[in-house]
Amino acid sequence: MNPSSAATSPRVVILAGGLSHERDVSLRSGRRVAEALRTVGLEVSVHDVDVDLIPALSQARPDLVWPLLHGASGEDGSIRDVLDLLGLRALGTGPRQSRIAWSKPIAKTVVQRAGLATPEFVTLPQSLFRELGASRVLDAIVGRLGLPLVVKPSRGGSALGVSYVTSAADLPRAMVACFAYGDTALIERAVTGTELAVSVIDTGEGPYALPAVEIVTDGPYDFDARYNAGRTEYFTPARLTSEVAEQVSEMAIAAHRALGLAHLSRTDLIVDGSGTAQFLEVNVAPGMTETSLFPQAAEAAGRHLGELYRELVMGALAP
Amino acid sequence: MFPHLSSGGATSGTPPTPAAGTRLDPWLGAYAERAHAMRASEIRALFAVANRPEVVSLAGGMPNLAGLPMDVLGEIAQRVIAMQGATALQYGSGQGDETLREQILEVMRLEGIHAHADDVVVTTGSQQALDLVTRIFVNPGDVIVAEAPSYVGALGVFRAYQADIVHVPMDTDGLIPAALESTLVALASEGRRVKLLYTVPNFHNPAGVTLSAARRPQILEIARRYGVLVLEDNPYGLLGFDSNPIDALRSIDDEGVIYLGSFSKTFAPGYRVGWAVAPHAVREKLVLASESAILCPSNASQLAISAYLSTCDWYGQIKSFREMYRERRDAMLGALAEHMPDCSWTVPDGGFYTWVKLPDGLDAKDMLPRAVTARVAYVPGTAFYADGQGRDHMRLSFCYPTPERIREGVRRLAGVVTGESELVDLFGTSGSDRRDGVQTPGPDLA
After folding, report:
1. Which of A264, B59, B315, B371 has a CA-to-CA distance to A2 between 20 and 30 Å?
2. In chain A, count of helices (H) and strands (E)?
3. Contact yes or no for A13/A47 (Cβ under 8 A)
4. Does the ipTM surpass 0.85?
């Protein structure tokens, strides 16, 4: 990289697309962030993750690479490893921490150890159901965790493969839907309450939280509710008492710290009936589409998206 | 429509700053009812991966243009602009270019249709003709009878006009006359108004079957008896592998049939030129409807196609397309027989598609993410029904990939089916009655 050019107008390559199930979402995120950065004068290009990427990056030698990849290699740290190999600086969480955050059960365990509440859960690979007999394992799950339950792939985003299960009879089908996306399922006790997403930013002065976004849907906050305007109503800042608002901000910052995340993250959580915030999952590459939560939170905080993204870029470039 | 709003609201006490909610679309309350079904879907998002070269897409319905003489077509396009630019780049007739309409008659004669150029309306692909016909005939709640399964792009149009789509089963000889009649009897007894019978008689999309010659007059007779106009959609008719073109329904009945044709599959979809042939009075309304929709079809496209038809061996080109698609069909059927013995499928005599029945209990829609992970794509059967049927089917296209890629795609798909079968056996699940409505894939997949 060339530090002198970075000081004036850094050249940024955004990575978007890839081969994951969330390719479409990633492409949309990439385009939005690129547009926003261009409005503040940055030189930005968007590149897919394909066989042309390494030659393109090697030739362009951008000052910074911003991976806006959702799912698989984009969030599991592998792309970050490759960028390290190429000696390129990147925005966002490093490879080792990405790997931890990307696995929902591992991330839950880490934040639990850090003293954060998270719904009780079990993580089981498909092979175990075969070895032990699916119905016996499912009975044990329902016996222990009760109903309703949330079944989700242990890795992945955009609510793909996620089911909200209210009766034991629906559980096998939810398992099949989940295992279509991956070999390991996370099954957790469903918590009812106020669903929230808290975005965290760290541009060098330590992590701080943007206003919580409250999500109210007419059903589960699934793919349809996420990417079609209308079914979901968002309240930003969330309709919380100041104490609870403080609590959820602290939780998101604590999760960001406990997991060793960098520059930006988004923690999804729920405030249960007793007023306790429960950690659900964290995203190291939060969605940046028209309907995504991170940009909503930023705008509610009065931040110009282009300015904020530039701050993130400059923060990532700081020595 | 969105009850609740207070559910899951404030945790305790009074919110310090009352926040207004947003649904991210200030015009949400303004949309027409027909727009409510137009939604981004998980399936559509998964298809974003299908366009990557690593993925063998058996999903797309894109014709294979590899055999077209691009240099000649380039010269034609150049000539059209250089010699006829003042016409090509200008507005034109709402009904379409007269010379092209004459030439379309020649194309249709191959399928036994004898019409007059005045009966032809040139449209922006036959998809626009579908829209126009539905627009002038269908009120919200009117019934359109369609094959089960049916072309997804037509279902999308019918849904947009708020038609009630009633499916009638097919077998390997196409639409079943007795089933059509019993459906029309049942609808009549309910006092339902049936406006159209929508059919793709040749090399059906997605089912791959062809309406037998014996059934054609029977279907027309039943439609006539119940006063139902037949909408014959025939984009693949000239792409039969083993025989001369089959006579169109329109060749038997010129008063009870609206015929839709297209250059998209036999030449080039990029020009977006199709046509409708309709009884005189209907044609008048189609022209007016088309003018209100688009003023006129593209002159540049029409003149280029017209020049192609008059200067090139277009039928020879179609014959070479047939050979290419036949080779691909053979590759697909051979690979299916080799790798997927637990499935069954139709044997198309033309066109682009075969319709595959999965082993019992499998759900093509649930299985799609697994397929995408395995780098192969197909269209789940539910896309081709308006009523949630089709979960146990998938459409496989053999039109675009090379025979080698087709074999590789089917091999990958076989692994996906095996994996999914094991999973379904493990959890003892089987197909459910979930209904998803029409989920229209993008244009390259329709």
Report:
1. A264
2. 14, 13
3. yes
4. yes
